[in-house]
Structure formats: C-alpha cells, structure tokens
Amino acid sequence: MATAYFAFQQRPDQEFIFELNDDERIAHARRIVSGEERERVHVMGRIIKRQAPYNPRWDFHLSPDTIHFFDYAIEVCDANMQEVEDHLPEACGAFLPGCDWCPWDSKITREIHIPMP
C-alpha cells in the first residue's frame, strides 16, 4: 500500500497537508490535482487533536483512513482550518460533532513529496 501526501487550501494563506494510504483515494486525489475530477473535489475526514510531523502548522490532522472526497456535505461539519485550530478544545462536541470536518471550500492544490527518513 502506498502513502501519499496532498495539500488543500481554503484561503491563499491557509494550507493543510494530509496523508492518504489507500490506493483508490490517492488516485482520486491525483485526478483532482490534474483537473480530471471536477465533482467530488472537497476533502472530508475525522480530525485527530495532535500535530502530525507532515503538517506542523496545525495542532490537528486528519485520520488517513477516514478521508474521502465530496461534492456537498451538511453544514455542521464545515469550518475553515483556522476556526478548527482556534476552537480545538471544543472540537468533537458541539463544534464538529464526532470530530468530522468537511471544509466546503477546501481545494486540493498539489501533491507533496515528503522524504522518508
């Protein structure tokens, strides 16, 4: 099974890096980056409240096995990454119930090549 890393943006100054380790999801993300996929282009997954080494700007990351792509989602899971960071102690309760995060305006911008130690 391969591992790949991708970045999505919400605003020009906000980038979030996530890990995929499922061949089908990796292929889907690559189709989004290439412009071939135009429908299910937004990223959704369950947050984990700790920093990941590949995404050091944020104190949370997405659990790779919960990530999938969507066209539309319910409003209760929508937030921008700075809001999640600012309200991380409340996340998984009234804010982002079940730890599900679905930023509606997320857009995968690139694949990241991270050297393995």
From TrEMBL:
Matching Pfam families: BP74_N
Database matches in InterPro entries: BP74_N (IPR056422), cAMP-inducible_BP74-like (IPR053344)
BP74 N-terminal domain sequence ranges: 3-113
Organism domain of life: Bacteria
Protein name: Calmodulin
